[in-house]
Amino acid sequence: TATAIAASEDAVETARRHLVQPWPFAGSVGAEARALIGEGDGIYITDGDGKRLIDGPAGMWCVNVGHRRKELAEVMYDQAMALSYNTPWYTMNAPSAELAERIAGHAPGDLSHVFFTTGGSSAVETALRFMQFYNNVRGRPEKKLILSRGGAYHGSTYLSASLNGRPRDRDWMDGADELIVKLSSPNPFRRPAGMSVGDFADFLVDEFAETVARIGAGRIGAFVGEPVQASGGVVIAPDGYLRRIREICRQNDILYVSDEVVTAFGRLGHVFASDDVFGIEPDMITFAKGVTSGYFPLGGVVISARLMEELRRSNHPDAMFGHGLTYTSHPVGCAVALRNLDLLEGGVLEHARQVAPYFQAKLKTLEELPLVGEVRGAGLMACVECVADRESNDPLLIDKDVGKRIDAHCHELGLLVRPLINMCVMSPPLVISTEQIDDMVAILREGI
Ligand code: PLP
């Protein structure tokens, strides 16, 4: 369009001189050029050389309704022309009120109140600061520890990042370790040798219960977990495990925070997966990404009405939740999210549920390849994990990053892959057709 900034070779050079990219290595920080993306359309993006690629990760698991949706562009324009911003400190706007109501309508149990943020990290941060405030107001200031798991990814702000449990994330980084208790990753593919999946579930639940007993429920404020660990490699925990953990939390008055930053808004075929897919009613759900299909940075936390009620009835009605972001309840972001929700409810969710079995079955055929140890997934998210050999299932690490090498081959062939060390994560826009799934898997097969 007339005012969009075109992709040019200059941009690559300018970035190398001035742009600090996320997740850089010290040896190239502030001096790195990455593949330049110029345009997007449906499930495709176009790189700086004009090459069309299938957007395998849908941006970062977020472009759920696909690129170049005119309806979303128009609503951004219209809302910005009507009201581009208002301070959320002592004013409010209609799009955020309407969106909160729509989201509450989809949330499980009594989750009925929404606090909007700028993305996923700030959503997780908000949920945890809310837990701290809740326990302070209720006269339990020592009940603040947070349970998190290996393989987790919850964000890049200080407290949310402290929860992260993926290899490499924390190697060179500090964190609020005194506030966090780490549990095992629920990854059945990496369970102890000789243990059945059923026994592995018992092991995880016992570890959880024993940790609560050892530390004391009176010191633990929250458990934070993704229903499916996304960036940890699309880890699907053993059947029933989440429900059992949820029950332990309930019995011990530990708030269960379900981090649905990736899984909400359609990735698993539903607006929220906690209840509809896994049968759990958390105390809080964090979301971001798919809420606007990535068209605008927005996230939030859905909070249980019970917690609100307890605060209102506490002995400290003057205690202030000292937390708010300049862009909390942004009118443009909320207006885009409302339109995006129309699209999801108007057919995209249904489509995602329909193609998901085909997507999973097609990708599963890659297990025929000798490099592939396991293909696993749910809904429209999957991980192809490469191993050195299938006996040991040791992660395959060629030139440090086999995922990056597969990505480079696939890029040549017309597919963008999300490389994660020895894993390739696939989470395309939810509007992908079965023919496009065939193309995607054929390229991935050749690339591997
Ligand atoms: N939580 C989960 C499960 C995520 O996958 C992510 C990002 O990938 C985040 C939180 C952080 O979200 P953001 O990058 O929008 O801050």
TrEMBL record:
Going by the UniProt record, its keywords in alphabetical order are: Aminotransferase, Pyridoxal phosphate, Transferase
PROSITE patterns the UniProt entry points to:
AA_TRANSFER_CLASS_3
Q: Which CDD domains match?
A: OAT_like (cd00610)
InterPro entries assigned to the protein according to its UniProt record, in alphabetical order: Aminotrans_3, Aminotrans_3_PPA_site, PyrdxlP-dep_Trfase, PyrdxlP-dep_Trfase_major, PyrdxlP-dep_Trfase_small
Q: Name one GO molecular function term.
A: transaminase activity
**What cofactors does this protein use?**
pyridoxal 5'-phosphate
Report the sequence similarity comment from the record. Belongs to the class-III pyridoxal-phosphate-dependent aminotransferase family.
Q: What is this protein called?
A: Adenosylmethionine-8-amino-7-oxononanoate aminotransferase
Q: To which species is this protein native?
A: Neomesorhizobium albiziae
